[in-house]
Amino acid sequence: MSFVASTNKVAAIRLCRSTLGGGARKVVVPSAAVMPVAASSSSASSAGASAALWAQGRSTPKGTIRALAARPIPRRQVIIGGGVAGLATTAVMGSGGYAVNAAVNAAAAAVEAPVNAAMLRPAVAAISALKVGMKLADGKFEVMSVEEVPEYNVACVELLHLKTGARWMHCGADDPNNVFNVAFRTTPTDSSGVAHILEHTALCGSERYPIRDPFFNMLRRSLSTFMNAMTSADYTCYPFATMNPQDYTNLLGVYLDAAFFPKLSREDFLQEGHRLEFAKLDDPTSDLMIKGVVFNEMKGVYSSPDSVLARECQQALFPDTTYGVDSGGDPRVIPELGFQEFKDFHGKFYHPSNSRMFFYGDDDVEERLKVLDGFLGEFERKQVDSSIAAQPFFTEPKRVVASYASGEGEESQKSFVQVNWLLTDNGPFDAETALAVGFLDNLLLGSPAAPLRMALEESGLGEAMVGYGLEDEMFQPTFAIGLKGVEKKDIPAVEKLIFDTIEQIATDGFTQAAIDSSVNTIEFSMRENNTGRFPRGLSLMLRSLSTWLYEMDPIEPLRYEQPLAHLKQRMATEDVFRPLLKRLLLDNQHRVIVELHPDKALGKKEEDDEKARISAFRASLSAAQVEKVVEDTEELKRLQETPDSPEMLACVPTLAIADIPRAVKTIPSDLSSLGATTLLTHDLFTNDILYAEHLLDLHAVPMELMPLVPLWCRAMQRMGTAKKSFVDFDQSMGATTGGFGLSPFASSIRGSDDVAAYLVLRGKSTAGQAGQLHELMAEMMLEAKLDDREVFKQLVLESRSGAESGVQSGGHSVAAGRLGAMDSAAGYVNELMGGLAQLEYLKVLAKRVETDWDGVVVDLERIRSAVVARANSVTNLTADAKTMDASMTAVNSFLSALPAVGAGAATAPWSPSELVLPPRNELITVPTQVNYVGKGANLYKAGYELHGSSYVVNKMLSTTWLWDRVRVSGGAYGGFSDFESHSGYFTYLSYRDPNLLKTLGNYDGTVDYLAGLTLGPDELTKAIIGTMGDLDSYQLPDSKGYTSLMRHLLKVTDVERQQRREEVLGTTLKDFKAFGEALEATRAPTANVCAVVSPEAAAAAVKERPDLNFTVINVM
Q1: What is the pLDDT at residue 411?
Q2: Within 10 A of 1066 (CB to CB), how many other CB atoms are there?
C-alpha cells in the first residue's frame, strides 16, 4: 500500500491536492491498497459512507484510502502483503457497517476535551536532554545526534547499536499514539517478487511465536491503531501504532521476532509465493495450476492498464538499477523463484546492520532500547551490500511501445501516452532544491487551474491524466505526465502539447496570483499536518525514511520552516522556477516516452502462454515428481487446516478485558439552530483552523437526475462563476482558504425507511480566513457557470475512465455496491451515483453531451435550483470556541444567502420497495486474471435484531474462517465480510481471487462453521479485545467533528453506543451461535451473488452452476 500521508517536505507540498481544493489529482492506488474499501448499501461513492457510529469515532468511513489521501499515491511500487493483505487493509469490516481499516483501531481519550497538545512537552523534554556521545541501555546504544523539531512539536535522537550497527531514531512527542517501524533496504535484482513474498512470509511465524500466523493472532487481540507491512521498490518495512502501553510491548515483541527470527518454512513459501497444484488436489490427471497469494495478487495488479503503464515507465527510466525490476513480482517470473534463493535473500538483507528502526510517541526510550537489544544482541555486525546505484543519464531520449489486455468494447480501444524524466543523476535533491521542485510541481499540476494540467485536461485529446508529476520517494526523483483514453493517431499531438506548454511556461513564467495561491495552499497544509486516520508518527517515519534510507540526515525532511522562509525570500527577488523548468525538463535528455496500446488478444495470449509453460513442465515430470506435487499439496492443506493448539497460542501475548474502559467515549457536541438550519458545533482544539460542513437536502433532487449529481458537483468547481473565471476562482480559493469541495452522501438509517441523503459542502480555513472561505462558497453555489460543453465533456470522460479502472482494480467494491442496490434505497442511490450504474450512465452521457448539450445544461441547472436551499439543511462546525465565535458572522452570511426553498425540488418520498435493483445473481465481466466475489443478504429482513456481539462475530469471521478458507487455502489476496448495521445487509467479499464457485462454497460453509464452533474463555476474550480496537479509533479533531455529525444524521445516540459497547464486552459463545443462525439468510435462495470476473470465468460458472441463473453483464 502506498501510504497517503506525505513522506517528506516535497511530498507534504502535495497535501494541497486534497479533495477539498477541487483540485484533487486522481489517486492511483497500486496493489491492494483499495482492497478494504468495499462499497456498501449505505455509502455514497464520492463522499464516503455511513460511519461506524457505534465506534468511538471515524470520519469518512468508506473510501478509506480516498479520505486519507492527502497527496496522490506515487508510482513507486508499494505492495501490502503478508498477513497484512487480507486484513490490515481488508480488514475487519466492522462495527458500524463499513470497512474498518486496521489503521483506525485506537483507544481514544475518555472525553475529547479541547486541549492544546503543544502545551504538553515532557516527552519532548526527555529527548532534548540527551547529548551526543551519551550511552544508553547499559552502554549498548550511543547517541549520534539530537535535535528538536518545533514544526511538529517533537525532539528526535538518532542512536547506533554499537554491536551490530543497527540504527534507531526516536521522536519524542507528547502523543500517546506510539509508533514503531523496522525497515530494511531490500534491492532485488529480478522480478521474481522475492522481497514481496518475504514480507508476506515473515509474518507467518517466528522463533518465539511458532504458531501459524502470529500477525493475525495479534490483530485479533490488539488495540492497535495501525498494523501493516509493506514492500517498496527499495525497502521493506513493518510498522505498527497503538495507544495502549501494554499493547505496544506485545506488538513490539511480535514484530521484532518476525523481522529478525522468522521461521520461513517451505510450506509458508508455497502458500504465500507460488506452488504447483492439481485442479483436483489428489488427481494428477487433472489440470496442473500455479497458485500462491502473491502470484494471484500480482496477476490482479497486472490486470490493470494503469499498473502496466507505471511498471513500463519505471523500468524504462531505470534500466540499470534495482528500480528496473518489479519488486512486487511479475507473474511470469514469480514461478522461477526457488526456496533457497528466497531464504538467501532474507539472510542477506534482514540483518540489524541493514536495518533502520523508528519510534515516535511518549514512551520511555531507555526501556525500549533494552527490549530492542534483547533481539539485536544475538547478531554480530556485518557488511551488507544493499546500496542503490544511481542510474546514469541517457545521452538521448528513448521511446517504449507496449500493450495491455483490453476488452471488446469500443471505449476500451484507447491508448496511453506518458512522458517521463529522470531529474538527477546522483541521488536525491538537496533540501532547498527539493522544496523548490515541490513548489514547481504544484504550480504545474497542483490544481485544475494549473497550466500544464489544464492544458492536458481541456485538450480533448484524452480522457484523463496519468503520470501526476513529481515522484520524489526513490533514490533519484522523476517527473511524469501524460494522458489515457487517447486515440492512437493523437499520440503525437499529446506529446507536442506537453512540450509546447512547458516551453511556453518557461518563457512566460507563472503569474503572481498562481504563486500566491500555491504558497498559501502549501503552507496551510504543512502547518495543519492533517494525516487523517493515518497516525502522525507514521507520517514522520516515512518522511525520515526518504533520506535516511539513502545515508542522509533523517531529521532534515521534518524541518520546513527555515527552507520555506528562504525559498519565499528567493521567490520575492528572483525567478526561481523558470530556470528549474528549463534544466529539469526542457534540457534534460534522460526522457522516455511510453506508449501503451490496447490488445484484445493479449489476455488470451498470456493465459495460453501460462498454460503452455505449465503443460511443458507437466510433461517433464516423472511419476515420482508428480506424486511429490500431490504430497506437497496434501501436506500444505493439512497444515493450513490444522489449528494451533491452545498451548501454542498461549505464547502470543494479549491484553485483558480489564485493560479496556467500559465507558463509551464521547465527542463534545452542541445542537442548536441557526434560522432554518440545524447547527452542530464541536469545541475542539484545531490550531486556529475552522472545519465547516454545510449539508443540503439531496432528497430535493428529482430521482431521474440523481446519476448526474456527481458530475454536477465537479462542474460547479470547474467552469468559473459570474464574477470570476475558473482560473481566478481557483487561485482565490488557494490563496485565501484551505480548500473546499462538494460531494453527495447517502446512508440507510437503522429501524427506519428514511434515507440520510445530503449534498456535502466541506471546507476549511484559518479563523481569519473564514470570511473569504464562506464568500467563495456562496459564490460557487449561487453563481457557478454550468455551460462550458468542452469542460463538461472532459469531466465526463475523466469520470468514465476512472470508473472503468475502478471495476478492474476494485471489483469487490463494485460487487458490494450492486448487492446493496438490490436491497435498499440508500444502496440504490449510491449505485446510481458511484457504482456500475454510474458507469453505464456516463457512457450514455458522453454521447448526449454531443447531441443534446442544451438539455444537459437544463438538467444541471435543475439540480442547482432544487438542492441549493436552506430547507432541511445542516451545518457542522469544528474548532475551539474562540475560532468558532470569530467565524459565526461568515457562517451566518453564507446561510442567509441561500434560498429558503429549492425551485423544482422533488417532493415524493423515496420508496424503499421501488428504489432497488431487481434481485438477481450477476457476473460482471472485464479483462482480468483474477476474480472479486461477493454474496449477501439482509439479516434484519430475516428477523435478526442488532446486538453488539455481531461486531465480534463479524471480525472473527474475517480473521479466521474466511481468512483461512478464501486466502490461505484458496489463494486469494483477501477474503472478508461486512455487516452494514444501518441497513442490516451482510456481505461476503473476496479480493484478487483465483476462484469463483469455490469461494461461494466457502461463504455458504460459514453457517456450519459457526454451528460447530467451540471457544474457550481465552479465545473469546481475544475476539472481544480485537473488536474493541475497532470501536475505539484514533482521530484528529476534524474527523471527530465529522463523526459526531454522522451520528446525528443516522440517529445514533451515546446511550445506544454504550449499550452496544456493553454487548460487545459481554459477548458469549451463545451469541456466535445465534448470529450463525441469522446467517442462514446468506445461503438461502433469496441471497444474491455478484462477482467481477473474466469472460472465461463467467462462461465456466454459468455452465457449471445453471441453478444460480447468472445474469452476465459485459462492461469492457
Answers
A1: 67
A2: 14
More confident residue, 196 or 48: 196
Diameter of the chain by CA atoms?
84
Highest mean predicted confidence (pLDDT) among 35-49, 775-789, 1016-1030: 775-789
Taking CB atoms within 8 Å and a gap of at least 24, the contacts of 861-865 are 861/786, 862/702, 862/705, 862/904, 863/701, 863/705, 863/708, 863/709, 863/712, 864/712, 864/716, 864/781, 864/784, 864/786, 865/902, 865/903, 865/904, 865/905
In 3-state terms, what secondary structure has residue 593?
A: strand
Q: Rounded to an integer, what distance in angstroms lies between the CA atom of residue 1066 and that of residue 700? A: 43
Distance, CA of 589 to CA of 193 (rounded, Å) = 31
Position 15 scores a pLDDT of 32
Q: All 3 cell numbers of residue 1111?
A: 445474469
Residue 561 annotated among the catalytic residues of the structure: no
Q: Report the distance separating Cα 952 and Cα 1067, nearest Å.
A: 8
CB 208 within 8 A of CB 265: no
pLDDT at 206 over 90: yes
**Could you tell me if 323 and 233 are in contact, meaning their C-beta atoms sit under 8 angstroms apart?**
yes
The least confident of 7-11, 315-319, 490-494, 704-708 is 7-11
Query: Dihedral sign, CA of 296, 297, 301, 303?
Result: positive
Quick one: cell of 1104?
Answer: 457449471
Q: In this structure, are strands 1088-1093 and 922-925 parallel, antiparallel, or unpaired? A: parallel
Between the alpha carbon of residue 817 and those of residues 298, 824, 950, 1089, 1091, the distances in Å are 24, 11, 21, 12, 11
- Residue 199 annotated in active site: yes
Instruction: Compute the mean pLDDT over every residue in the chain, rounded to the nearest whole number.
Output: 88
Nearest alpha carbon to residue 330 among 391, 396, 271, 274: 274
What b/e string do you get for 170-192 counting C-beta neighbours within 10 Å, with b at 16 or more?
bbbbbbbbbbbbbbbbbbbebbb
Active-site residue, selected from the candidate residues 112, 158, 267, 272:
272
For residue 679, the surrounding DSSP H or E stretch is strand 677-683
Would you place residue 290 in the very low, low, confident or very high pLDDT band (cuts 50, 70, 90)?
Answer: very high
In SS3 terms, 796-857 reads as: HHHHHHHHHHHHHHCHHHHHHHHHHHCCCHHHHHHHHHHCHHHHHHHHHHHHHHHHCHHHHH
CB 720 within 8 A of CB 756: no
Per-residue model confidence (pLDDT) at position 255? 96
Q: Name the nearest CA neighbour of 87 among 1112, 987, 959.
A: 959
* pLDDT tens per residue across span 38-79: 333 333 332 222 223 333 322 222 222 222 222 322 222 232
pLDDT confidence of residue 410: 65
Identify the helix (H) or strand (E) that includes residue 466.
strand 464-471
Strands 740-748 and 79-80: what pairing? unpaired
**What are the pLDDT digits (tens) for 829-869?**
999 999 999 999 999 999 999 999 999 999 999 999 999 99
pLDDT tens-digit map of 596-626: 999 999 989 999 999 999 999 999 999 999 9
Whether the CA torsion 621, 626, 627, 628 is positive or negative: it is positive
Strand arrangement of the beta sheet that strand 922-925 belongs to? 974-980, 985-991, 932-938, 1088-1093, 922-925, 1111-1114
Sign of the CA dihedral 556, 562, 565, 566? negative
Question: Which of the following is catalytic: 112, 158, 199, 595?
Answer: 199
Assess whether pLDDT exceeds 50 at residue 493. yes
898 pLDDT more than 90 = yes
- From residue 876, alpha-carbon distances to 121, 681, 691, 749, 774 in Å are 31, 6, 8, 19, 14
Helix (H, G, I), strand (E, B) or coil at 391: coil
Query: Using CA atoms, how far apart are residues 105 and 636, in angstroms rounded to an integer?
Result: 33
Report the alpha-carbon distance of residue 407 to residue 424 in Å, rounded. 39
